Amino acid sequence: MRLLGRYLSRSVLTATLGVLLVIVGLDYIFTLLEELKRLTDTYTLINASVYLLIRLPERIYLFLPVAILVGVLIGLGSLASTSELTVMRAAGVSIPRLILHASRPVVVLLILAMLVSEFFLLHWAQTADTYRWENRTGRQAATVSTARDLWLKEDNAFYRINVARDDGRLLGITLYELSDDWQLQKRVTAPEAEFIDGDWQLQEAREVIFNEDQLQEVTHANLVLPLPIQPEFVALQAYSTGDLPPSKLWTYGRYLESRGQPSGFYWLAFWQKILLPVTVFAVVILGASFTFGPLRSVPAGTRVFHGIIIGLSVKFAQDLLGPSALLWGFTPALAVLIPAAVCAVWGIWLIRKAG
């Protein structure tokens, strides 16, 4: 039985890695062609190629679920086409047992993907973006993470920050404070602010107060302002939620909730990452059930087609339910779990029907 398990696992792993290589390779080529439009005298083809190589782990993480699904279909399908699965079942091995053996490499790949997502993706994204920026501008980037052109809101106050650094410095701050009927009451500008003793302190701040019949201008050498952001969260503003690890999504989502600010997209990304193994295993069960049922004797190309259709259908369903969850107010976790549950139930039904 152990030898049988290794044989099944090797077949699925080989097929999955082959599919992943093809998908990532095609994505690299097409992305490189798109990047050619951004070439300059200092940002050459070699620089663009290196930039995409640094971002390659992110693309592998993105395409891994589809590669696993198609790999399971091809790996088990090739065994079914040569009647090897039929022989295994005739020897007394149940369909759930066969799927369990085939899922072992899936577990390993998912563990690696979760570790990469938590500890490496954000660092690689920062490194890649810094590398491209330095080559396109010809300047040396700062050693700290920065975010540019931020807009923040708290109550009736709107903040615009030209450059925010995660070492506790903000550059180019403008505050617009509105009344309850949305009339401009005050504007504060400052070239720089530092996070000192738990507060943001504006240097050389210029405050303009809009009264009904006049403007009043006041200059402050130092002005404490309750900016709704902490230094450790500044760098997060520069990256998409897909680049952020689950731990930072959780921390930042709770922080936004404590400030009364919208946090739905961060919670949606958090649940998508945390529940990725659930989603993958659900579609794997459905894909494997097709191997023992409707797709038992079809060509490999047909299996690949069905695998892509299943993967895209689940992805589109989650993408549609995600914003719907934020709009209607139910937990974003359901937007991830509902398509996965449908796939799992459908797959289990097909397996029981076939076996």
TrEMBL record:
**What keywords are assigned to this protein?**
Cell membrane, Membrane, Transmembrane, Transmembrane helix
Question: Does the record bear Cell membrane in its keywords?
Answer: yes
Q: Which GO terms describe its cellular component?
A: ATP-binding cassette (ABC) transporter complex
The cellular location(s) given in this protein's UniProt record come to:
Cell membrane
Lipid bilayer topology: Multi-pass membrane protein
Which Pfam families does the annotation name?
Answer: LptF_LptG
Biological process terms in GO annotation: lipopolysaccharide transport; transmembrane transport
Q: Where are the transmembrane segments?
A: 12-33, 60-80, 106-125, 274-292, 327-351
- What is the protein's known function? Part of the ABC transporter complex LptBFG involved in the translocation of lipopolysaccharide (LPS) from the inner membrane to the outer membrane.
Q: Quaternary structure?
A: Component of the lipopolysaccharide transport and assembly complex. The LptBFG transporter is composed of two ATP-binding proteins (LptB) and two transmembrane proteins (LptF and LptG).
Family note = Belongs to the LptF/LptG family.
The name of this protein is Lipopolysaccharide export system permease protein
What phylogenetic lineage does the species belong to?
Answer: Bacteria, Pseudomonadati, Pseudomonadota, Gammaproteobacteria, Oceanospirillales
